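Sat 14:20. Reprocessing the chain from the morning session after the first attempt stalled halfway. Input below, unchanged.
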Amino acid sequence: MTILTKHWPPLLMILLSLLGGFISLPYLPSKIPIHWGIDGTIVSYTDKTYGVYLNPAGMAVAYLFFVLIPHTDKRRVRDLREIGLYEPLRNTAVYSLAFAQSLVLGISIGAVDPDANFLLGQACLLTALFAEAFRSGLAVPL
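Finished this time. Tokens:
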């Protein structure tokens, strides 16, 4: 089994986030949001030329961490795989940064209201986490 057939969902998300940032770059304002406070308000901005690639870079780092960690801590990774948590943890790390990328692009382009980002984001993230849990068999529907 090759890495593309085994790990395609997180790799696809990384690729889509990079592509989305590249395509939207000309339409973004000069400063884009990169950090939100606990109440959902935007607390810091950065220049769009490198800020649009921060989340995809974080996704790639998180993905590489989960690819390389089995070579250093085989016992713990085996234990996590036995209970079905390793891949959901990897995917959640990547998907949460993909969600942040969609917020950055959506708010910057004007498709998402900056005041609604926190509630919308929490709903999307919880939906993704529950879908991953049901898909992997960690949770059973009520």
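DSSP finds seven helices and two strands in the chain.
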